[in-house]
Amino acid sequence: xxxxxxxxxxxxxxxxxxxxxxxxxxxxxxxxxxxxxxxxxxxxxxxxxxxxxxxxxxxxxxxxxxxxxxxxxxxxxxxxxxxxxxxxxxxxxxxxxxxxxxxxxxxxxxxxxxxxxxxxxxxxxxxxxxxxx
Length: 133
What we know:
Layout: H1 2-40, H2 43-58, H3 63-89, H4 99-131
């Protein structure tokens, strides 16, 4: 009987450690995801300023450059839209999800916001390079 009790106690301890481990992974992934968001979110202001600068320059350039400017503005607008969509669809509560589902969801969200970040940085960089030439 003592061995059954010991086995039950060991199983209980293992389950508790496993749950704590998953909770830590969830919190770590959530924190990493939000950190990427928080790092790139201020760049939304840069996007707005760059679009304004490009529009101001558009009237005084050749048609070739005007086409280039329109493409840069479109790229900036797409970056803005992708960020807004990510924020609208991100569910920090994750209600009704198991720990495994939360972990998978957060991995996907982290990857998604990293792609958003790369897209924003790229469109900003291209617009700045054009304006600084």
